[in-house]
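The following record pairs a protein chain with its ligand, magnesium ion.
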Amino acid sequence: MTEDFGVIIAAAGSGSRFGGRKQLAVLAGRPVLLYSLDLFAGVPAVAEVVVVAPAEEIELMRSIVRDWEAERLQPACGRRTCAAPRVVAGGDRRQDSVRRGLVSLGGAVGFVLVHDAARPLATESDVVRTMDAVREWGAAAIGHPVTDSVKEEREGRVIRSLDRARVWQVQTPQGASRELLERAYSSPASELHTDEVSLLEAAGVTVRLVSGSRDNIKLTHPADLDLAEFYLARQRDRGPK
Ligand code: CTP
Ligand code: MG
């Protein structure tokens, strides 16, 4: 095991709320997936990138990754020696996809970050800060406190008002030491987990929260693509926040 990071890009979803595979939607002229490939290619601690793709689109995703690779002047990871991103088939739920990505990682990686392909606006600072916290604390995720008031409900009735200063919305990247993440993913959970934090928590692992960029939205509904165009243009004007 080394200090290097393996990165799993979760890109095997069907985009049912978006109305199609949002990881392949076109954002400012390029498929959304490519923003994540660019992001991790610029980070020196990344030794390996695995893209988890829908089983039925695997050849299409491989050709998109190959074209991206062919256009690049720099290697595909922060390391000159690293290989091209690999594309492996995902599963029905996000957690099944990430599990397959995790199993496929090479032997030398000591830490793992997972990133949603549907988040094209994560910044290098988000990645590096998450990595630093993973190294220091063992497991970490990027996010920020919610701004709206937050209620727990049952059948449309408020059960409880939560203290919003202590409620975070959590994004990706998220990660852990390989050992902790493998422990969290060691058995295929029957219950739904929408992120690594949830699985790590279920495995008894404490996860550190790291304050990240508010631009890092997840494309979920079609209108999010307009929002992403706006944030991207602003990042390009001002430099990433
Ligand atoms: N994802 C995945 N494998 C799945 C489901 C989701 O790799 N079986 C990925 C998606 O491609 C996305 C990320 O996990 O990049 C976050 O998931 P989500 O926003 O829920 O995407 P979808 O599942 O594609 O969308 P929906 O839930 O609306 O169908
Ligand atoms: Mg989903």
